[in-house]
Amino acid sequence: MTTEDRPGSPTPADRALARRAQETRERVIARLSDHFAHDVLDVDEFERRVTVAQTADNPADIEALLRDLGDLPDGPVAATTAVVPTVVTALAPADQEPETAYAIFGGIDRRGTWTVPRRMRVVALFGGANLDLREARFPRGVVDIHVTAVMGGINIVVPPGLAVQMHGSAIMGGFADVNRAPANPDPDAPLLRVHGLTMMGGVNIEMRIPGESERGARRRARRELREERRAQRLLDRER
After folding, report:
1. Taken in order 37, 42, 47, 48, is the CA torsion positive or negative?
2. 46: helix, strand or coil
3. Backbone torsions φ then ψ of 188, nearest 5 degrees
4. Which of 20, 98, 188, 205 has the CB geometry, 3.0–4.6 Å to 119, for a possible disulfide?
């Protein structure tokens, strides 16, 4: 019996549907990112739509996320933003050794173009670690990052086009819980799984479009907060 004939294994039709859904997903998320960069979508609505796009398996459901969005407004996009590219994949050997990064009484910061190993361990002990994956190269399939934060913090920045599953345990600390991945993912598309433990520390994940700095993200959040308060004041006056 071949692998394809085993009960429960994906059929060629299943794989074709998963691949078509992934292609639609990448295109739709890129368009959503364009609208976000032009301030057509706020952060909450952008993240909601990206989450739906990442978790849906039906290409029609993914396509529907653009239905109520018109043409982009004229004018240049902010200098801190850029269109989301397809997540770059790189070949990684199956027997690749896990990579370990330590932040002990100090900090580590990985950003720019770098190759993410298939298995990685990050330890923050009285220190901090920042992993910026927006320009990173991923092996195909599942990438596991095991994190441990003790009296320290670990922050992971991901692009909208990357499917993410994140869960862990927190003792007197915080561990973000994120499930932004399709039930039947394309095996050739990267899937990031983050898991582990934090004790009196924190593990956080944030989604930012490529080119947007942390300062730019904070500036956008402040602007949206001001707009919400202005709208609330107008509503109060009407009452």
Report:
1. negative
2. helix
3. -90, -10
4. 98
Cβ proximity of 78 and 216 under 8 Å: yes
Q: Residues 191, 87: contact at Cβ < 8 Å?
A: no
Q: What CA–CA distance (Å, rounded) separates 72 from 37?
A: 10
Residues 6+ apart with CB under 8 A from 13: none
pLDDT in tens, 102-133: 999 999 999 988 989 999 999 999 999 999 99
Task: Read off the pTM.
Answer: 0.74
Task: Judge contact between 161 and 135, C-beta under 8 A.
Answer: no
For residue 2 the two structure tokens come to 């071949």
Q: Which residues contact 112 (CB under 8 A, 6 or more apart)?
A: 132, 135
The answer to whether 80 touches 58, Cβ cutoff 8 Å, is: no
How many angstroms from the chain centroid is the CA of residue 125?
25
Dihedral of the CA atoms 163, 71, 63, 67 (nearest 10)? 120
**Torsion of the alpha carbons at 31, 35, 36 and 37, rounded to the nearest 10:** 100
| Angle of the 12-37 helix axis to the 43-55 helix axis, nearest 10 | 170
* Bridge-based pairing state of the strands 174-175 and 202-207: parallel
Q: State which H helix or E strand residue 31 sits in.
A: helix 12-37
Domain ranges of the chain: 3-84, 99-207
Q: How far apart are CA 64 and CA 88, in angstroms?
A: 25
